[in-house]
Amino acid sequence: TPTKEPTSPKQPTPEPTREPTTKRPTKETTTPEPTPNCDGECCDSTSWRRNDNEGRDCGWVAERKDVRCDHAETRKKCPATCDACPTPAPTRACSDSPTGWVSSTGTTCQQYDQLLLCTADGGEGTGWRPSYGSIADYAMGGVDATDACCACGGGIATDAPMAQPTDCSDSTSWYHDVPENDCAWVQRMPATRCQEPNQDNIPAVEECLAACDNCPVEPPTTFQFPETGVMVYKGGDPEDCHCEQNPEASNVVPVCCREDSSCFRQPCLAGRTKDGTFVSLGWAEAARRCAEHGASLCFEPPPATQSPETSPNCEAAGCGYDREFVWTNVTCPKKDDFQFPMNGVVVYRGGDPSDRKCETDPKAKDRAFACCDGKNKCFRRLGGNNEGCLAGHGDSFASPTWAEAAAACRDAGAALCVEPPTAPYKKRRGPNCDGAGCGKYDKLYLWTNIECEESILPEAPKFPDEGVLVYKGSDPNDFKCVKDKNKAGIAPVCCFGNNACFRKFEGGECMADMALGAGMSWADTVAACRAEGATLCSKPPTSTDKRQGPNCAGAGCSGGGAYGWTNIPCPAA
Description:
single chain, 4-stranded mixed sheet, 26 strands
């Protein structure tokens, strides 16, 4: 475990606060620290060891630097020995990113610069002591100072893109077993030979860059956020999505896609750390990080059939992102992209999900609306009071058109509801969105994005003032009058026009299992029947045939011992 970096020039170097993984003395000893080999301000690392072998430090490299300096990591760690010290880079306009980044011990980018903890090319500075471990040990959410801080070679360029030379040449000293098996030998059969190692166990893919098609990708340095925003998807649920118009939105994480549309999350670039801190990346920074890995933010929405390997949410791919929204390059639709369905849309009465009709005029008056997420959870307002009602409230009611309602939902990070109500009905579910405030909406029809069918059921019936007859499931001659539409213990029964009846939804699930005493109200039964393309039974039994008429004998769900609802008014007393 690394020790804490210094956070102020005046502070003494703190002692380690936890026991390191590799046992090191935590107090001053009489053994002097090794003096690094330096070329000006460019010094070899005194803590690095090739393959963690204690005897293979930069001094070991110097013994045969003509061969051992050929490895990219060695040149980076032993730049003075390998004559690999960087030439001063031209000053660039740069911003630390993520903004406000701090290391896992609270050290800022400014302190890394002031205390000479790093170099401009991403190396360890003269102020970095071997006892600290490595800069990567202090990463926060997978991002260390060499990624985040301009002073350490990271950050994000804010000037125009500059052409960068790309080094893509094969090593002249690497070979496998015998000198004849060099990079040219690898190039003849790269599919199998790129994984072959040399005498130092370095695979060809790391040294024969051209032969193994492993040339570094120089990513672009600037990215343009789409004018209309981008879609973001919940990592664990691709149906939970919204349009994000803030390119610096918090709590959004990056997922990258390759050219073949396959996705990846690792190395983890953002997300929640073990202590619960959330480290986010803005859209441009996320795009840049993907480009560094030869990929991009995903351009395609999730496929209709969920495929975690090719979806922008990239479900179950690690990093704990299943709980977060992820950046994409899927552009949000423009306001004028909303197309009213040719057959019209179904509108629902706010206070009664069973009361619906087909609306063919996209500019119809006196329409309100609710918005839904991917799970049919709805809302009518933003905030905790009616001042935030989406279509206005009271004197401010705006009577929006269908397109205006669709755009308002989009801007609120949701959409007009696309699923009908489902029984049994719950408040704040579905397109009517009962119980979600803006009480005036209960009396109005609400816009949806549910296209009308060729024939829509007639207007929902009203409960007769005189009550309705209910029939015993096992005996069509046993019936009585019920005047309370919410009476408990009455079974739901539905009929088609030919008086054929049913008690189950199309998938086979009971509307109510009467063995459990789980009856249904009259209004909920009306809505459940209409959702199945049927109505309450309006004709009395005409025979003892099973599955005919309001008693619906033999239709299951333990309905034989219960009375079932109808739409047959009670006879006058």
